[in-house]
Write a structure and sequence with these properties.
alpha+beta; 2 helices; 36% helix
Length: 73
């Protein structure tokens, strides 16, 4: 991720989840949509993997972003 339109789309997506009362977080800490987007913008050697937590009906209840180190080889 990197360009402005990608970040805007990501923010809108996450804000939609937040409106639906989906818990959001990054590296196991609660975070707002803006904090998550900022982490993506600032990351140089870290990528973020999404971890969806579903309820028994398959609805998204939580969305976590887990940092994964990226090796530059």
């Amino acid at each position: 991720m990197g360009n402005t339109s990608d970040m805007e789309r990501m923010f809108q997506e996450l804000a939609g989840y937040e409106r639906k009362k989906v818990n959001l977080g990054i590296d196991r800490l609660p975070a707002s949509p803006m904090q998550i987007v900022q982490a993506h913008i600032m990351s140089e050697d870290t990528a973020y993997m999404r971890d969806y937590v579903l309820n028994e009906n398959g609805d998204i209840m939580e969305l976590w972003f887990d940092g994964v180190k990226v090796s530059k080889t």
